[in-house]
Amino acid sequence: MRSSGNTRSRRRRSTVRLLVELTGEDHPKACTGRRLLRWGRVERAVHLGEGVRGPLVLDPYAPTPLSASDREAAELGGLLVVDCSWNRLSSRGAFPAEEGRFHRAGPHRRLPLLVAANPQHYGRIAQLNTAEAFCAALYVLGRSPEAQQVIAGFAGADEFLAINRIRLDRYRDAAGPKEVLEAERSLFGGT
After folding, report:
1. Residue that wins the pLDDT comparison between 23 and 116
2. Are 4 and 17 spatial neighbours (Cβ–Cβ below 8 Å)?
3. Beta pairing class for 56-58 and 79-83
4. Quick one: pLDDT at residue 103?
5. Domain locations in the chain as residue ranges
6. Whole-model pTM above 0.85?
7. Looking at residue 15, what is its pLDDT?
8. Closest CA to 181 of 171, 168, 166
């Protein structure tokens, strides 16, 4: 019997749906989220209706790091990155709930610690741009070909993968959040 198309498949998706929410806080020419949209590598996030599985939200303030155990959630619901200004995040802490950032339905995970290679935040720990965030998330989820595709063409793309290769491999090989936290401590000396 054929599916009506309305039922969700339990099979593994061939690609993870990548969603971006633009806040408009960055200069449009420097905004990697806008470029990813323009290049057709991601979709603009829309508010989902009741009962719809939300995407896995990459949230820099989530206590739980992304790990291989999140693979199924990402394959079923996608990955959401909120493209916003790091200056605004660091000066005010997490956005208040009324602004809605990072308060989306779905599991919230932070990326494991990595070093940025983008021109704006080169060498800073955990201050990745949107393209680097998508790349890192896909890599950690065991989808390195997709990770390389999403970051291709950005300044510092090859360097991001090169300087973080050992970290990315360790995080990818970690079974769950506990092992990712242990890897972070090992790689960053107790950070």
Report:
1. 116
2. no
3. parallel
4. 57
5. 18-188
6. no
7. 84
8. 171
User: What percent of the chain has a predicted confidence (pLDDT) above 70?
Assistant: 73
pLDDT single digits (tens) 41-90: 999 886 554 444 679 999 888 999 999 999 999 999 999 988 876 555 44
Work out whether strand 18-22 and strand 79-83 pair parallel, antiparallel, or are unpaired.
parallel
Distance CA 191, CA 188 (A): 6
What radius of gyration, in Å, describes the C-alpha atoms of the chain? Answer: 16
Is 65:184 a contact under the CB 8 Å cutoff?
yes
Burial class (CB in 10 A: 0-12, 13-18, 19+), 62: middle
Q: Give the whole-angstrom CA distance, residue 120 versus residue 183.
A: 26
Q: At residue 173, what is the residue type?
A: D
- The first and second tokens of residue 80, run together, are 């959401």
pLDDT for the residue 31:
82
Nearest residue to 143 (alpha-carbon basis) of 14, 56, 53, 55: 14
CA distances from 83 to 30, 59, 60, 79, 139 (A): 11, 11, 12, 13, 19
